[in-house]
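Reopening this ticket.

The earlier resolution said the output was attached, but the attachment link was broken on my side. Pasting everything inline this time so it's all in one place.
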Amino acid sequence: MNKLHFLTAGLPLSSEGKGYKKGLDIIKDMNLDGVEVEFVHGVRMNDANQKLVKEFASDDNHKITCHGPYYINLNSQEPEKIEASITRILETARMGQLIGAYSITYHAAFYMGQNADEVYNIVYKSMEKICSELESEGNNIWVRPETTGKGTQWGTLEEIVKLSKNFKNVMPCIDFAHVHARNNGIYNTYDEFSKMLEFVGKELGNDALNNMHMHLAGIEYSVKGEKNHLILEESDMNYKDLLKVFKAFDVKGVLVCESPNIEGDTKLLKDYYLSL
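Inline output:
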């Protein structure tokens, strides 16, 4: 990566359901950098849309990422659901490769009342299967478990960094709103953001900071963690200091905006970043 790219989470709202051609044209017209394709209920995209997205991603100034289906839990108490979750991650990675995506992300697991170390080991075994299968297929796309927003979900930054150290094509997807919500309002200052990136750089090296996949939105939360996403300016998310930290650390990669005001807040973030 040669810079930080600003992506919308899904097609712009102003595309009004008119499909990828309209949505990608809006991205270009607004001088935004790309889209995270969200496979919420399953990994499906017809051939025509695959061609459109791949052509869009072939331009170095545009980036595509993919978000796996929400029905993933690598720590399910039912073995068949673990296998189904592995399949969904593999399907996301395969589609990502077909459409020229930079990386994929997904919510990996729930604790299900178990010890955190035990859940880590279970997630690790699934990741071994995923990485082995992708390697056998010649698919080297980045696979990125996402930091999660609730204490019931596996996926602290520390857990995902630990996992990433063991696999060549695994890196974190850091959702700063999730980290903020999960920790009941902390991780929201310049110094706290800096410590997070220092930790990533120390544990995973500069390559990690040069190839980041990140999420950001405003967020409503309680003592139990994330409740729902908010428009940035209607939240307490300190996005300005976060962007200053990105500039100070010369972070490269993609920042996906998951605000309810998708393209408006993506442009807000990019414009502010470029003004620094």
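Reporter confirms the inline version is readable. The two ends are 20 Å apart (CA to CA). Residues 4-275 form a domain with the TIM Barrel fold (CATH 3.20.20.150).
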